[in-house]
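Mods, move this if it's the wrong board.
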Amino acid sequence: MGESDEHAALEEMNPEKVDYIDELTGLSEPKGDLTFSSSNTILTMPDPEMHSMGRAIAVFLLFICLIGFLNGVDYASPNSGLVRPDEFVYRLSLTAPDETATFRGVVYDDEQEPLENATVYISWNDDGIWNSTEMQTELDGSFSFERLDPGLVRVDIIVERDGHRDVYANRVLLSPPAMIEPIGFTTIDFSVPSSEEFASQPCTNGADECEIRNIDMTPSQMDHPLMDPGASSIYITIGFAFMGIALIATGFTIWALKSGSVAILRTAAALSIFGMGHYYAACCFGIVAFLLTFAVPKRYIPIQQSS
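Not the wrong board. Structure tokens:
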């Protein structure tokens, strides 16, 4: 019997055709039509719109930026506001090292002519102990003191003329070192009143004539002592820096609202910290806003499939 006859006999014995590959793999071809089923999986993407919590933080940041901006306006207005340049410099002088102040200037008379050999007498209170130093003015009326303690001092300009000793007293604030400078410089010029003006002042003992005549300006300088004009300009510059930081932080906040980026919102919060604010309000609120940005949840939206 031939080979073809054997295959025919096997097919007659097994009406279902057996595939050799199926026998080896143990898999059989599916019978009938193939069908596909969905897994119900939805493709998503980050939501470009900011979460409502992020928008609330952005509004909070705009308020913080306003506080920082107003603080800058206060600094840039030395003659008004909650903080004055002399108060700012005085607070810095409290933490400054000793003997880091240099005081210099020129003494003029009432006609703006330099006064030679006028005595410049400086005294200050150091923890309940009064210290003092003095020197004579040069030919051009100039004087220069070194290694003084920053802070408040009393400066007496003593001029001997017409058989009298005229004492012109002022309250002066010596500037501490600025930034990384080792020495703080204070430059103030004094104009001593005329002899007639001293003669019109009453004597301390009630007498008609007195050898020592005084014009004491310190009572009117208790709140705002004399200080270096340069220190005031630095104070104003700091104010404009605060305003600039507040405006930059505001720009980042608006950018974050439009883009929906939490990272940009966090950057705005970090910048707002440096606006400081009165009583460090912007600094404290800025730290709170910065920490809150980490709590903003991420939102996802389904990808729209085109048909």
